[in-house]
Amino acid sequence: MKHPLTTYFLEVYQESIHIIHDKVLFVISDHKTDYLILEGNDSLGFFGELITVGSHQAIKIPLTHHNANILRSHFPFTNPIPVLRKKRSFGLGDRLGIAGEGHLRVFKACDAYPVLAQQSMRELTLTKRSYEDVLDAASFAVFKFGYHDGFGADGDHLKKMDDIENVLKLGYTMITLDCSDYIKNDVLTLSDEEIKNRITLPEVMKKIYLDREINVEGHLIHFNEMDLMRAYYVYQDAIEYTTKVYQKFFKNQAYAANLELSIDETMTPTKPVEHFFVANELKNQGVVLDTLAPRFCGEFQKGVDYIGDLNQFERELGVHAAIARHFDYKLSIHSGSDKFSIFSIIGNHTKGIFHIKTAGTNWLEAMRLVAIKDPNLYREIHAFALDAFDEARKLYHVTTDLTKIPSLKTLSDDELPALFQLNDARQLIHITYGAILTAENNQQDRFRTKLYRLWSSYHQEYARMLESHIGEHIRKLYDGFIS
Predict the structure, then answer these.
(1) What is the rounded CA–CA span in Å between residue 60 and residue 85?
(2) Which residues of the chain fall below pLDDT 70?
């Protein structure tokens, strides 16, 4: 679409040109920040500055929270939708709020639904962002790049009722309920006798599960007494809390949102019998899940490929996927960034019906861009990350060995981007994002402004890098179910 008003601006995002009340609205960049431009002098509820451009009057509109709300009121496609009942969905965890262009290039070319707004309370704290900011960035991105096919918004890894309610009231269309506070990890240290001394199994539960073989798509689920007692001991409190959350926020469709249950933040993998137990008990309580994330065998560490026995993973994934289908929800895979060795396995055993959650890999691509475009800045940040690593690792399970990262003194500038092919270097940068983004010198930010300025200058390169990197995730997932 061409419009005379657009010719007065140097950088107009062509895909953003839309008509509202017979007036044109679009996004421009002045190389520092983006603005909406609305034709005419009627603000339509937007807050902005009246300007004269050639023979035209227009309103220059900053990308604020108020203006995001007005945009969402005028253009329904800029509002998130529930996506977990779609066949394929993919959580993207854009920690910086600038990855929309690259992400949307990928999802314009496939039939998976992106969850563009996806952040946990921890990530917001570390990046000093808010749930409003995360949702607004997603809404502006879909408008800016003309994406009309629907996207999700996930209040990720929420634990408290108040936080869940706040996010749902903002319009988020998905809650990932983190029940880790209600899951008993000390089961790893307890003997069978100690378990027996701590709980009494309800008789009705014995009748449901003991002395039965449950056939789930040819997989036989069998509970002996200790299987049942351990499942009850570990998960019963989580089941009760999930039921309370469901009844308050999701029963009778109180909010137009999906519910994901996360039981992956545990010390021990979720056995198939335990997955079945949790799902069945929730069903008996009337809870309808849209997806569930077990703790799979092996290691799903941040920013690196799967660590573990691929054969065992495939065997167990097949059972987990069958259980999910049995209870009519999608299987969810958390910490899915860069797990290239198992993507086709996931695509195959889920039959192409899955939710994959990634977080942080777009941050790594952004930092790889820094290493390419400003080696001196990258060197300074890398040295800072080494100092910040011990504190950052308290929040993440990683097995990073800093001694395996080459000294930057031995590397030329051209060799710096290759660090992002090394697991230990990737994890160093991956988990120190909060310290890097909030570092200060003399009460002034140390890196943040420089970084955002660089990313703005090279936004097209960043988009191409994300298109390639996230696109490879999608291609390998689809390889598993498309011959």
Answers:
(1) 39
(2) 1, 483
Confidence (pLDDT) at 363:
98
The span from the CA of 274 to the CA of 28, in Å, is 53
Alpha-carbon distance 172 to 129, whole Å? 16
Domains of the chain (ranges; CATH) run 4-64 (no CATH), 77-361+470-479 (3.20.20.70), 369-459 (no CATH)
The residue from 39, 101, 123, 156 that is catalytic is 156
| Strands 291-293 vs 330-333: parallel, antiparallel or unpaired | parallel
Number of neighbours of residue 41 by Cβ within 10 angstroms: 12
Residue 155's DSSP bridge partners are 119, 175
For residue 93, what are its two tokens? 């965890």
Whether 57 and 76 have beta carbons less than 8 Å apart is answered as no
Picking from 219, 428, 207, 196, the residue whose alpha carbon sits closest to that of residue 319 is 219
- DSSP letters, 252-290, are GGSSS-EEEEE--SSSS---HHHHHHHHHHHHHTT---S
Contact 187, 195 (CB under 8 A): yes
Which residue among 94, 136, 260, 290 is the active-site one?
A: 260
Q: Is 260 a catalytic residue?
A: yes
Asked if residue 175 lies in contact with residue 260, where contact means CB atoms within 8 angstroms, the answer is yes
Which residue intervals of 250-408 are DSSP H helices?
A: 272-284, 310-326, 343-349, 361-373, 375-392
Q: Is the dihedral of CA 136, 138, 143, 145 positive or negative?
A: positive
Secondary structure letter of residue 49 according to DSSP? E
Say which residues have a Cβ less than 8 Å from residue 36's Cβ, sequence separation at least 6: 25, 26, 27, 46, 48, 60, 61, 62, 63, 67, 71
Looking at the whole model, is its pTM more than 0.90? Answer: yes
Q: Residue holding tokens 């990308």?
A: 63
Please report, for residues 29, 39, 288, 405, 407, the alpha-carbon distance to residue 176 in angstroms, rounded to integers and kept in the order given.
35, 40, 14, 34, 39
Tokens of 323: 């259980």
Tell me, what amino acid is at 261?
L
pLDDT digit string (tens) for 418-440? Answer: 999 999 999 999 999 999 999 99
